[in-house]
Amino acid sequence: MVFMYLQNTIDTNFHDLQHFFISTLSGKYDGGIESFLKIIFVKSRKDCRKFKQNHLQQVRNMSVFIQQHNPMTGTIEWGIQPDDYDYKQEVARSAYADMLHDKERNDKYFEGLRRSVADLRMKGKEVHVLDIGTGTGLLSMMAVACGVDSVTACEAFHPVAECAKKVLTANGCAEKVHLIPKRSTEIEVGPGKDMERRANLLITEVFDTELIGEGGIETYKHAQENLLTPDALYVPSEATIYAQVVSSEKLQYWNRLSPVHRKVQGANNDDPLISIPQSVQECAGAAAVHDIQLSQVPQDWITKLSHPLKVFWFDWSGRKKKIDYEETSRVKFSSLAPGSCDAVLMWWDLKMDQKGDVMLSCAPYWAHPDLEGKEDGTSEHIPWRDHWMQAIYYLPPQMVSQVQEGKELTLFSAHDEYSLWFNVQENQDSAISEERPICTCGIHIVNSRSRLGQMNDPRRLNTYLRILEKHINSDSVCFVLGDGCLMAVAAAKLGARQVYVSESNDSTRRIMQEFVISNAVQDKVTVTHMNYADIPLEQVIAPGNITFSEPFFSTSLLPWHSLYCWYLRNSMLHLLAENALSMPKKMTVWGVPVQYRDLWKIRAPLHECNGFKMDIFDSLIETASDEADEKVEPHPLWEYPARALAKPQPLMTLDLGGAPPEKAITVSGSFSLTGTGTLNGMALWADWDMTSCPEDIISTGPVKPVVVNEYISWDVYTQQGVYLMKENPLIKPDLSQILQYYVSFCPNDGTVSFDFKFNKNI
């Protein structure tokens, strides 16, 4: 269950999760299982990635032989990797490059530092800087450029600390920065120790989407008490957290399952087909924050019930207001419109200097201070960043009630050392929960936000129901292939003789059984823990004449990983009738050359940053990525705008009706690049042809026709494949430019491989 949740929540792979879980249980990670599980079930995908960075060195020795789960074939495979594979993988996937491409962040840190140094000089003081979590050493070099008297920097992530030494040397700062390869909480101060004296200027970046999720509260409190002078200045000096209450049925698709209805011809109302168990209806939801690019959420999805509200303020010096590990606030507001209190949107800003003249905001474009008073502002008009996004917090179900415009409400906000949570109170006498929401039904633990969205998606549901209504009858013996597929219940209620569901995971099996009981189809649906391959024919009512897969498997990261349904079906032929109907029938991989507006930055070299050379860091990232990363990685592209530079094309089609081929399949072809812009990547997805009828195709790609030179509208409930080009040629329509593609499918392990080559002309 832990593996399933993490794999669907953070950008990582299965063997990493095994390393962490095994090392925790065996005591190799000294944080303990309680701390590990707290990170897993409370933090977001990027926070978990940071957690991995901080503790990776403790499991390094486990990476010689690795056990990997193959999402395509469902098998566990052993592989051999170099001793430093985990290090290289972590360096490649770290967020350092993303942060360093954030020009506004860098410029405002530099300006906040200049002003704070000037403030200390005005008072006739020496300036001794402490840089906590220096990363590449950029902030320390900025401090040197400001003419400070001394700089002490610490960095606990060993490979980056080694890189920082080289970067400091290349920029002539090695003798001016004392680099300590430790956590700040391990630093000792005094003659002959790590720091000779306490610092009087702290510069650090220990923030995440929730502001405090990287342990910033403890970092600041420890520094105040042990590493800094009582009158020390801080860059940034303050932070404010904002929250906005909204009504949104669409946002709730990512959080709460709704009953499934089918359209009945001639009827005024839809027919309820799948009801939701009471335990799921009453569940408070997931504790994990939903970090998201809010500026990409369609505005017609959201009805704003409040203005942005200031809910927490942090004075990092602790002099104006003590920093508390736990805190609550209550802010009254009048509802701006009628609607239900569905969610709270959250972001924060930083005061980078001491007076508040230099501000850095993470607000979405409609609330961004730089666009105040500008009605035509969009996400293109504010800085892009992926290391700090915005967040959605879903309100408990008892608070999802209708309110009228002008209704007086109170927003309750709370935080502990790492996380935030919210609730809405309708009046002072109404009781609300002040506790962090915790999933009690299991749905939010075993399913990602994207998966919950798929299970609520009308486009998918209508297609599935139309297909099942067409093919299910009283003679149907149906085997459902996939994880948590509620279409098993639908097939039973549509009249199937018997439906079989294999759920090897205890949690998903329990949830499926609850749905079966809640919908009174216990006599029609058999939920088993056994793999279909291990079930003898004598244990089923009759040979199956239908296999159905959405397809979805919790282990699938890329769209074509769900080809596992093909391998699964061919492992259970002994349970099927000779002419059994198989759905889906085909899978086609599609691609389109694109110009990513911002996403290219996560892999692009820096060369220089604020006047400092970064070639050494570029080389470290590139080498690590080449050795540890896949060429194609998953991203929810609806959050990352991309313009089409050519028409989409099918790259490879696999017929799923028979057995996988014995030999590898390789196809090649080319795109004619007719758009205008910079070619910096490919967008890849899979279309699942369920029945050979065009209207029965389930696509994980664009939801509207793709127009060259225009932004693509993507399916918001799946991740697509992203291939980033190392060279980024300029594309012009008057040139005969093509992009060649090479796609291979290896049936032995189910892998699909891609390569792309740009040619200036034919």
Automatic annotation (TrEMBL):
GO MF terms, alphabetically ordered: histone methyltransferase activity; protein-arginine N-methyltransferase activity
InterPro entries membership: Arg_MeTrfase, MeTrfase_PRMT7, PRMT_dom, SAM-dependent_MTases_sf
Protein purpose: Essential arginine methyltransferase that can both catalyze the formation of omega-N monomethylarginine (MMA) and symmetrical dimethylarginine (sDMA). Specifically mediates the symmetrical dimethylation of arginine residues in the small nuclear ribonucleoproteins SmD1 and SmD3.
A UniProt-annotated Pfam family: PrmA
Upper taxonomic lineage: Eukaryota, Metazoa, Ecdysozoa, Arthropoda, Crustacea
Keywords, in A-Z order: Methyltransferase, Repeat, S-adenosyl-L-methionine, Transferase
Superkingdom of the organism of origin: Eukaryota
GO BP terms: methylation
Organism in which the protein naturally occurs: Meganyctiphanes norvegica
Protein arginine N-methyltransferase domain span: 238-425, 607-749
Residues spanning the membrane: none
SUPFAM superfamilies for the chain: S-adenosyl-L-methionine-dependent methyltransferases
Identification of the protein by name: Protein arginine N-methyltransferase 7
